[in-house]
Amino acid sequence: MDNGTVRLILQDDVLTAVLSGEIDHHTAQGMREEIDFTVNQSKPKKLILSFEHVGFMDSAGIGLIIGRYKLMESLGGELVVSHLSPKMEQIVSLSGVGKLAKIEKGETNYDQANE
Amino acid sequence: MIKPMNEMSLSFLSCSANEGFARATVSAFVAQLDPTVGEISDIKTAVSEAVTNCIIHAYRDVIGMIYISVKIFENGKVVIRIRDKGCGIEDIEKAKEPLYSTGGEERAGLGFMVMESFMDQMKVTSKVGKGTVVVLQKELERKQAKSANG
Ligand SMILES: Nc1ncnc2c1ncn2[C@@H]1O[C@H](COP(=O)(O)OP(=O)(O)OP(=O)(O)O)[C@@H](O)[C@H]1O
Ligand SMILES: [Mg+2]
């Protein structure tokens, strides 16, 4: 089964979490723990959640976004969500999460960084 | 009543690892109707929501059985029934309200809303202490030029 994994890239004050696989209640738990651990350690000014490599997401993905928004807010930082597929955007728009996090369509250049 | 062209049923324990199993299995069965990528994604998402609800709400502190049955019809109709014998829902109308959740921090309260908007029809029946049944229905777009006796 295609489990959800997360790759974390810290560059200056920006932490990029590249999510991949399927996001549901089962897989979101591990992703959340990994992201929060690194956020609490490095206290970035900006957290980018990239959904480019996510093949499936249900409402657990929204929970993941809202939870990370609250965490970043408590640290005085900002949250950016990038590369949502049209289906994911449909769920995001139902949730109204767009009012909390900045939704970015364009490229993130994490691939050049640290590789 | 039109007879389904095929049907299946499935039961499994309410372990969260089965969320992926359930949506993959249902979508593999529905694939017989030659759905579009979008339709399969809608069905997967709705099944994932219903099954997750059984796991985190119906059987909150216990492990129980989850039962799914799927019927597919010649005209492209899909009927999916997801049943648990868990705690039940006291006020279904309230539970269906967007953002309503009894699930704590990481729950958005969107599951029923997602099921309703990704499927054509959703029916919820429940009895406190007995369990809950969610019936989801979707009419798939049939591609023409597929004559039955051709
Ligand atoms: N099978 C079930 N058995 C018992 N209670 C349920 C069941 N399904 C849903 N509920 C109740 O209905 C509420 C709303 O469900 P819904 O799926 O819309 O949101 P959620 O599960 O709380 O959050 P999300 O789905 O966004 O993670 C739940 O919080 C729960 O109280
Ligand atoms: Mg739910």
Structure, explained:
The complex is a heterodimer of chains A (115) and B (150). Chain A has one domain: STAS domain (Transcription Regulator spoIIAA, 2-Layer Sandwich), CATH 3.30.750.24. In chain A, 38% of the residues lie in helices and 32% in strands. Chain A has helices spanning 25-42, 59-74, 86-95, and strands at residues 5-11, 14-23, 46-57, 78-82, 102-104. In chain A, strands 1-2-3-4-5 form a 5-stranded mixed beta sheet, with helices on one face. In chain A, strand 3 (46-57), helix 2 (59-74) and strand 4 form a beta-alpha-beta unit. Chain A starts with a strand and ends in an 11-residue tail after the last strand. With 150 residues, chain B is an alpha+beta fold. Chain B has a single domain, classed as Histidine kinase-like ATPase, C-terminal domain (Heat Shock Protein 90, 2-Layer Sandwich). The longest helix of chain B is centred in the first third of the chain and has 22 residues, at 37-58. Chain B is globular. The interface between A and B is medium-sized, with 26 and 28 residues. Bound molecules: adenosine-5'-triphosphate (ATP) and magnesium ion.
Number of beta-strand segments of chain A: 5
Compressed to H and E, one letter per element, the order of chain A equals EEHEHEHE
What is the CATH architecture descriptor of chain A?
Answer: 2-Layer Sandwich
Report the C-alpha radius of gyration of chain B, rounded: 16 Å
The helix content of chain B, as a percent range, equals 25-40%
Give the CATH topology of chain B.
Heat Shock Protein 90
User: Which CATH C-level class of chain B is it?
Assistant: Alpha Beta
| CA-based shape of chain A | globular
Give the C-alpha Rg of chain A: 13 Å
Number of domains of chain A: 1
> Overall pLDDT of chain B, averaged?
94
CATH topology of chain A: Transcription Regulator spoIIAA
The portion of residues assigned to helices of chain A is: 25-40%
